[in-house]
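Quick note —
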Amino acid sequence: MSISHSSSDSSSNSDLAPVDEVHQPPPGCENLAFLRSLMSDPAETATEAIQAYIISNHDGHMSEYLAERDKRLKFITGFAGSAGTAVVTDKAALMWTDPRYFIQAKKELRPEWTLMKMGVLGVPNEAQWLCANLPEDSFVGADPKTIPYTLWVSMKLELEKFKINLIPVTRNLVDLVWSRDRPKAPLGMITTLPKEYSGMLSSEKVQAVRSKMKENGVDLLVVTALDDIAWLLNLRGSDICYNPVFFAFVVLSNRKVHLFIDEKKIDLAVRNHFNKEDLPISLHPYDNIYLFIKRAVESETGGISKVWLPSSTNFWIYNSIPSEKRFCECSPIALMKAIKNEVEAQGMKNAHIKDGIALCQYFHWLENEIKSGTVKEIEAAHKLETFRRLDDSYVGPSFETISASGPNAAIAHYTPNPSSNRTLSVDEIYLCDTGAQFKDGTTDVTRTMHFGNPDYFQRECFTRVFKGLAHLTTCKFPTKIKGNTLDVLARKYLWDVGLDYGHGTGHGIGSFLNVHEGPMGISWRPYPDDPGLQENMFLSNEPGFYSEGEFGIRIENIVQITPAATPHNFQDRGFLTFSTVTMCPIQTKMLVLDMLTEHELEFLNSYHAVVHDTLGPILKKNKLNDVYEWLKRETAPVERLSSTSAK
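Predicted structure written out below.
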């Protein structure tokens, strides 16, 4: 099949103002001051002078991980975390983030910025603060291409209650401030993913999506999430670090697949891939998505009655479609992607076995080398990378390894850098949260270890975290139950003594895709698009505890949802449970064994037996005898010292 080009794409979109004009701040002017000067100039905002400007931490696809040129929040505030929103007025500069990043934000925010701790009692959200601090008839501006329509609509309604106007500013003002050395758009080449890894042809996936469109009376589906596009087309890219995705939009009709992309990324191999998978593609320039949709819905001959807009769609696209033609629901691709087919599921298991071999080599090496007092956090992360590279199917990390020693481990999303790079010590806890991309799957694992003599409180906290992990893993639950209903199982044993952790318990994970994948998850808050937990979904299970300035603990496994054996089946709902696919020992010396119940001990010993029996033969075959002896010791069965059963 050939790849066709739309003849209408030669037109430029006059509704979009250029964002790459050279705007330089006056000599000596700070970024924040220059931003405020742009806010007060209607010629720059292309609307009204605005009294407040909202800066999101998203690109036009609502990606969690960003290309360097899209890290606007980091550029303007100094904060490098993945979650945050800034608000700037003529006198205030505030940034909101969630509990995962409180410690990090305090370290990274520039002095002129105020940290707003989301979820803390008495701290208003962005809309509440604006309503309390702006007069009536004020204008609040934001880039409509970097905010999901769901958030825009809810914020607009909140502001309108106080007669404050939220208006689109299509020229991103941070881009204008940043124009001198802002990185260029990435042009990573695209690779194909054959059926031996994907399990389905792209044409089969498109047909399944079209069936969902037909069920819902929809004529067009707008696909903006980059991992949805990569999964649908059986392609992978390298435009964003750690995420094998590429910048593109897809508009799917009943007859055509419209791909909006920089055509320089489409080489002969990709064209042949579409032919081989029997998928005709109409190519369009990347930026023409906005004009294309506008023309499609305005055409009197096109017959477009409904356009499917997933919740990740940016407000600019949403606002270009008349309200009567919008169909706003979770993307059908997101659910198909979340429920792994048999090939993907087996690939995920294989990937975790390969990663387990590398992890065993790493922790064996670290146990020996840490005694020298010369191993630093960054060096340790690099050493793990060398072990992973020994596997030919290894592609790269799935995120930057969190290699954290002592107080750095208390920063949930810590990233070592030259100024924070601690030397690992036998006297401190070491937390390693790391993940890999293999051609057949994605991994994410956290292990917390102490190579000396941990104190009792550290061991107690570790044990309570482990108990939560064990009970969540072994629970049984009805099909399609929402993930937030299970979250308490992981927290209970911390809550019992007044402890907790500030992040979610579990996230979905992609198949050689994004390490964080929706639409489901396990957290104290409901996921807005959670379809309920279903067989062959893969999620993380990662409770933790963090003592600021002292230590941090997290244990993380990836689990597969599998059928559960139960004596009854209430209302024929079908019951499910979790099966662990991560293959790496949990350090038993950190456990207070007398705190464990028989159930918890059985879970631990059974898990370690599987890890030993799975990895042991491979280590011995590869003549890694010293590593095997380490594995054998670390997976040896344990029992309580006392005969009294823990509660």
